[in-house]
Amino acid sequence: MDIQLILITLFAATLTMLATGLGAVPFFFFPNLSSHWSERGYAFASGVMLSASVFDLIFPAIQRGGYTQGVIGLVIGTIFFIISESWLGDREPKIGDIRGASARRVILILGTLFIHS
Q: What's phi and psi for 30, nearest 5 deg?
């Protein structure tokens, strides 16, 4: 195994993790944003993630593997999220002291970050 490749991968993963965390920094300074700004922030973040998904994941997947593999990947991803949602369903998840909708949010965010990384 090439140790240099492993170290480069570890370094890149660490930078990615730190960059992801930087996105939360402004909320430490403005913890009580009005719904006006929260909604716009969610809309902006959704647009960024949607465009990143389409232009950096879906289009390259179709170019490299063809439409069939691209569509299969999209279908598998969609099924995964449907199963995840039905599995959580009406359950009242608990993570440490975090319960309910907040725990669902934690599961969603950590799961997304895990799959994304």
A: -130, 70
Contact 104, 92 (CB under 8 A): no
Domain residue limits, the chain: 3-28+38-116
Report pLDDT digits (tens) over 57-96: 888 888 998 999 988 988 998 898 888 778 777 777 777 7
SS (H, E, C) the chain: CCHHHHHHHHHHHHHHHHHHHHCCHHHHHCCCCCHHHHHHHHHHHHHHHHHHHHHHHHHHHHHHHHHHHHHHHHHHHHHHHHHHHHHHCCCCCEECCEEHHHHHHHHHHHHHHHHHC
User: CB-hemisphere CA count at 13 Å for 63?
Assistant: 7
pLDDT digits (tens, 9 = 90+) for 26-57: 777 877 878 888 788 888 888 888 888 888 88
